[in-house]
Amino acid sequence: MMEPIRVLHNIASLHFGGSQSFVMNVYRNIDRSKIQFDFVVTPEEKRDLYEQVEQMGGRIFVAPKYTGKNHFSYCKWWDDFFIEHPEYRVIHGHVRSTAAIYLKIANRHGLVTIAHSHSTSNGSGVVAMIKDIMQIPIRDTADYLFACSDKAGEWLYGKKAILQKKYKMIPNGIDLKLFAFNEEKRKCIREKLGIAKDTFVVGHVGRFTAPKNHKYLIELFADYHRINSKSKLLLVGDGELFETVKQQIIQLEISKDVILVGSKDNTEDYYQAMDVFVFPSLWEGLPLSVVEAQANGLQCLISDVITHDVNLTDLVRNLSLDSKQGWVDCIGKTKTLVRQKVSDSNRKCLELFDAKEVAHKLQDFYIEQHNKVTR
């Protein structure tokens, strides 16, 4: 029996996040007798996905975190890695900031190189400016340019690059059946969380980081809660701003009405408990959680800066961050809608994002690229 082809993914971490969800959804749905994923990550304390990866047959390697000062030792690590691991013929890079470095080294060792854009901004400040400069060469270094949306592709690679044959928009696939609305699950999870039957739940799934704009979300909910005291905010996720958000919740005196459950590997259960999904991000590539929420049949209120590629159904409404009152009014209007399964027409619109379809296409692509290379 032939050994499976091993594809190397360079990803910042293996705890819950958008790019991690994409990779793991593909990993779960490919034929692992034909393709196996291995991962290069940077040193981390949280290891949410390590056990899953290892159970599926994947290996995890830890690279040094790039600081600029360690440029030569960082390059040497990658050079040594490819010498020690001649089994890799394809590398799929999800780390933008250093992609022009490690993909160039991979090219030198004869690998097919893939860059993947999952965002539309590096944020602001000096560090963001440095990242912006460092990622410019990616469009010329990588053999293939992937992006979760055309907006994310244009941001990272430029307008001309996304017209090239080597550019591919790869939808962030999900298991549509897993996220389908289930009345029984809704009842169970709400009981588990202590949510009364007549309580209206505003929900959000996302890491506690600057782009997700939790500060704005908390303010929105506080305003809405003054109108409807029988409401709660359910937040699923973790991250560097978790404690900051907790303090804001305390200051606004809404601690009893905000449910913080942390990171979960069964987010599909938590969508069931929600009545509306609110997502006021400052920037995104293509937010997988908005696709998941639509698959669950939730009304989705999202900021108008997010790519409209995520507007797959009639469940999405784009709102300006300039008007908090507009958000509060829309949250209130969704309260009158009956919570139910996604319609047949909307389900059909979501099929492009079926994880099985995305995984099968990528599987064929990996095999084709692997067979091109002789190392």
Looking at this protein, list some descriptive labels.
alpha/beta, Rossmann fold, 2 domains, seven-stranded parallel β-sheet, six-stranded parallel β-sheet, 17% strand
SSE blueprint:
Elements: E1 5-10, H1 18-29, E2 35-41, H2 50-55, E3 60-62, H3 71-84, E4 90-93, H4 99-108, E5 112-117, H5 126-134, H6 138-141, E6 144-147, H7 150-157, E7 167-169, H8 183-192, E8 200-205, H9 214-227, E9 231-236, H10 242-251, E10 258-262, H11 267-273, E11 276-279, H12 288-295, E12 300-303, E13 316-319, H13 324-334, H14 344-349, H15 355-372
Parallel strand pairs: 1-2, 1-4, 2-3, 4-5, 5-6, 6-7, 8-9, 8-11, 9-10, 11-12, 12-13
Helix pairs in contact: 1-15, 3-4, 8-11, 9-13
Please state the CA-atom Rg, rounded to the nearest Å.
21 Å
Please list the strands of the largest sheet in the order they lie side by side.
3-2-1-4-5-6-7
Largest sheet: 7 strands, parallel
CATH homologous superfamily (4th level) name of the largest domain:
Glycogen Phosphorylase B
Instruction: Identify low-pLDDT runs.
Output: none
Order of helices and strands: EHEHEHEHEHHEHEHEHEHEHEHEEHHH
Q: Quote the distance from N terminus to C terminus.
A: 22 Å
Query: What is the name of the CATH architecture of the largest domain?
Result: 3-Layer(aba) Sandwich
Q: What oligomerization state is this entry in?
A: single chain
Instruction: Output the structural class.
Output: alpha/beta
Please provide the count of β strands.
Answer: 13
- Domains (count): 2
Explain how this protein is built.
This protein has 15 helices and 13 strands. The model has no long low-confidence stretch (mean pLDDT 94). A 7-stranded parallel sheet has the order 3-2-1-4-5-6-7, with helices on both faces. Strands 10-9-8-11-12-13 form a 6-stranded parallel sheet, sandwiched between helices. It folds into 2 domains: 5-173 and 354-372, Rossmann fold, CATH 3.40.50.2000; 183-352, 3-Layer(aba) Sandwich (Rossmann fold), CATH 3.40.50. By secondary structure, the protein is α/β, with parallel strands linked by helices.
